[in-house]
Design brief:
143 residues, mainly beta, seven-stranded mixed β-sheet, 1 helix, 12 strands
């Protein structure tokens, strides 16, 4: 799925009365929804969910990290007034969303590839993130 197609979808949502839209093409899934107050139409927000196999995990001598698969802005929660997806000490299941990375106005849900426990959150909310940058230090669970 290329950027031009995504931009066209965003324009269609902006000009329609739809509140939610989702599309899956291969291993990529796009979900767009309008955010706003109840009954009011807000601006569209696109969420691109990548399959867990595409989120990179880095291991170095007993240390395991969930790293960023893209360049973007880190968000620990789905909205400013919501609680964080994960915090230190949380146990995470494979496929569970751990954060959102915004890139080019698209919200990308980042998922864990494996069951783990969050040992440290290595970045702060709204921080600019580089490709391959460690986001979370984790301990794999052998369940």
């Amino acid at each position: 799925m290329d950027l031009e197609k995504i931009e066209k979808l965003v324009k269609i949502i902006e000009n329609s009365s739809m509140l939610e839209f989702s599309l899956q093409e291969g291993n990529k899934k796009i979900k767009m929804s309008r955010r706003g107050t109840a009954g009011a139409v807000g601006e569209p927000v696109a969420v691109v969910t990548q399959q867990p196999a595409q989120t990179e995990q880095t291991e170095t001598e007993d240390e395991t990290y969930i790293t960023s698969p893209i360049v973007g802005t880190f968000y620990s929660a789905p909205s400013p007034d919501a609680k964080a997806f994960v915090k230190v000490g949380d146990r995470v299941k494979a496929g569970q969303t751990v954060c959102i990375l915004e890139a080019m106005k698209l919200m990308n849900e980042i998922e864990s590839d494996f069951d783990c426990e969050i040992e440290a959150v290595l970045v702060s909310n709204e921080q600019k993130i580089e490709y391959g940058q460690p986001l979370f230090k984790v301990k794999k669970l052998d369940d």
